[in-house]
Structures are given as C-alpha cells and as structure tokens.
Amino acid sequence: MLLLEAQLSESGRPILQPGEIECQLIDSTDIDLEQETKPPYWNPLLGGIVSLTTHRIIWIERTRKKEPVQSRAFAIPHPAVHALEPPKKGGLKSLFGKQAVKLRIVVGIRKDGALATRDAASAVRVVMVFRNLDSNSDAFVTRFQEVLEAKAWTVIPPTSALPGRAHPGSEPSFSGRQDGSQPSRAFTTAHAGVSGILKREEAQAKQADETLQEAFGDLNALMSKAKDMVALAERIRMRLAGSSGGTGGGTDEGEGSRQEMQDLLLSVGIASPVTRENAGALYHQQLSRQLSDFVGPLLVKSNGMMALVDVYCFFNRARGTELISPDDLLQACRLWERVNAPVRLRRFESGVLIVQARGHSDEAIFAQLAQLVKTPDGTHFGISASDAARALGLPPALAKEELLAAEYRGLLCRDDGADGLRFYHNFFLELDSLQEAAAGQQQ
C-alpha cells in the first residue's frame, strides 16, 4: 500500500500526534492514483471520510452500522506533498449540472514505492474525488493550501522538549530561544554550589509566576501564551510524578493533594475539539465519536457510569471556549448506537439519563446490593441510598436509581418511613418458592 496506515481510537476517530490539530472534515471522498502511475497492487479507497490536520491528510473508511470490523485509515504526511493541483472550474461538463470535484496531490515516493518525506526518487499524483456535491470542496482545498504553507509539522511541541524528570537546575522551555536551545552564559561563582541552585530555582519560580500573571491578564495574552502554559503544566506534572516516585512515604493529606493536582494537570483539555466549522455536516457524528473517546477514561474512574449532567460539565470544561449546547450533547449521545461506540446512553425508569460503558452489567450491581441487604445491619435496619453509594462507589443519586431498578426486578422491597426510604431483602420470593416446593411434595 502506497499510503501509510493511521491509528484510530475505539470510536473510530483518528489518534492525533503531539501538536497535531484537526482542521477540516469532508465526507464521501474517494482516493485513487492517476492511471499512468498506478501500480498493480493498488486498490482505490472509496466513500470514506477525509480528515485534514496540520500534519497529515487522513482517509477513514466508513463502516456499516453494527459492523464489528474496525475501520481502516490511511494517511499522507504533509512533508511528502510536493504540490496541489486544484480542481478545474467551468468547462462543458459543468453545463449539465454538478460534477464530482477532483483534487490532484503530487506526492514524492522512494525507489521501493513508499512515500518519501525527503529525497524522493519520483512523484505520483494522488487523485482525491469529492462525491458529495453539497460539500464545500472549495473551502477544503483552500484550507489544505493554507495548512501546507503554514508547515506546522516543523514546529516541535513544547512537551517533546521536556525531560522525563525535571532537574533542579534546568530552565523552563519557554525561557530559551525559539528553537528550544538555552542561551549560553558565562560561568561565575554566583551560579555555583547550593546557593546557585537556590537562585536558579527562585528565578524559575519568578518567571513561572510572571507567565501565569501575563497569561491570565486578558484573553489575547492567554491565547498567545497557550504553548507556554501547556509546557509549564507538563513540567509541574513531571515534577509531581518524580517526587511521588522518589519518596517512600507521606501523609494521606499530602498524597491526596498530589493526586488532585495531577488529575487537574492531566485534564488540560481536548487539543482539537470538533466544531461546526471544521466538521460541517459531520458535526454531530464526529462529536459523538470524540465524546465517546473522552468519556471512556472517566467511566473507569466512576465505576462504569456517570450522570449525563456531569458528562456535560466535564466535556465543556475540556473543550475550553468551544462550548456545546445540551441539545448537541444529547444528540451526540443518541448517535452512539449508530457509530457502534463502546459507551451508551441509558434512561432509568424515573427519567434520569446516565452514560455507562456498553459492557456494564446491572447483574453485578444487583449481586452487590443483595449481599449488602443480607448483612446483619442490612437485615435489621435496611440500606439507604447513602449506604448503597458507599458500597458501589457511585453518587447517591445514581445509587438510588440502582436500588429502584433492583426493586423493579423484585430483588428488593422498600420501607418509606420516618427514617426515609430504605430497602430490604425481598423475602416474598423465598415464600413463593417454599409454597411451590410444599405443593410439589403434597402431590
């Protein structure tokens, strides 16, 4: 295969490289080669979704609903692109209605037939055919040309230049030159010894404080300092990881604060959020896939389920200024069944909406509740939503919904008294089984 294979997430979204941002999406696109340069092993790629990023152009195969086979994806890195030949406008064919638009991409190849990002032996023309006549192919071609001129793939991401563990005497990545190298300075006795290390640490803290104050001064400064803020957050995270690994013990309060800080720094947001501008008609479908990828790790920490309201808050916080409406979120969740996502939207009998993993089993939760109500305290006093929440590791509101679901299945029975709503083991099921056994013995 001439094109490079691209990795996809579990929901079918392309996994972006460090510093890579998705710019444009277009549907119903074929990729083929010019007839005179087509090798015998080449198979055309038909009817896929094309994702234009700052580093690559990715073709994603569209699979049918409920199809278990994982979608394929192939990419052309931008360094391999030599030129673009925009579609020809006008002509005799345009008089008979709209025609499929063809974009020719001249890419370099090596002697063995693989794509060449440098020192290409020859070149071939990759033909991209836009079958969707309603799509804005002109805007896509214009955006493609702008991306090639920007050459964002030549910029080294700030996190890639950071060391695995920060050295006490190292300088922040944003204090050096644009190419990442540090300015040379003459050695003096003031920079030597413990006092020199303390002075450098003090200078780093002062510069980090100035960066924070300048970044949060106004929105424009924040956007211009975005890379510096990401580098600073990554550096703090690495220091926390290094300190936790180097120390053998610590107080529970200190460990909790360190874990909370790591969680905050790790949730720096979505680098390339899906928007109406870059997705167009595919907005809700791609938003559904991105939401599925985002909520997966959260469900692992939340024992397999989260309230839809909490998902909305977390997702919008991660998107930064690209906020979505509740209607867009609900529509994206309802598309999970169509895109065969690993998560699903569920509605309890009370009308509460939650998000849970597709492999989540209510039977396991019901088994835990059955054991809880059979304990001595559960037998005498019953269990409340708070008791179930502590046992299941869920919020009290969701634990109450699980109790009501178990009651609906006949596993529990309720007592709504002065102490509030409490649930007990349903002994009536055992009485029914005893009566059936007695009737069988009499016969």
Automatic annotation (TrEMBL):
Q: Which UniProt keywords apply?
A: Coiled coil, Cytoplasm, Endosome, Protein transport, Transport
Q: Does the keyword Protein transport apply?
A: yes
Q: Which GO terms describe its molecular function?
A: phosphatidylinositol-3-phosphate binding; ubiquitin binding
Q: Where is this region: Disordered?
A: 159-187
Please give a single GO biological process term from the UniProt record.
Answer: protein transport to vacuole involved in ubiquitin-dependent protein catabolic process via the multivesicular body sorting pathway
List all membrane-crossing ranges. none
Q: Where in the cell is it found?
A: Cytoplasm; Endosome
Q: Which GO terms describe its cellular component?
A: ESCRT II complex; late endosome membrane
- Every copy of the GLUE N-terminal domain together lies at 6-160
Q: Where is the composition biased (Polar residues)?
A: 172-187
What is the top-level taxon of the source organism?
Eukaryota
Q: Which Gene3D superfamilies match?
A: 6.10.140.260, Pleckstrin-homology domain (PH domain)/Phosphotyrosine-binding domain (PTB) (2.30.29.30), Winged helix-like DNA-binding domain superfamily/Winged helix DNA-binding domain (1.10.10.10)
| Quaternary structure (record) | Component of the endosomal sorting complex required for transport II (ESCRT-II).
Q: What job does this protein perform? A: Component of the ESCRT-II complex (endosomal sorting complex required for transport II), which is required for multivesicular body (MVB) formation and sorting of endosomal cargo proteins into MVBs.
Similarity remark: Belongs to the VPS36 family.
Q: Which PANTHER family match?
A: VACUOLAR PROTEIN-SORTING-ASSOCIATED PROTEIN 36
The name on file for this protein is Vacuolar protein-sorting-associated protein 36
Q: Which organism is it from?
A: Klebsormidium nitens (Green alga)
Highest lineage ranks of the organism?
Eukaryota, Viridiplantae, Streptophyta, Klebsormidiophyceae, Klebsormidiales
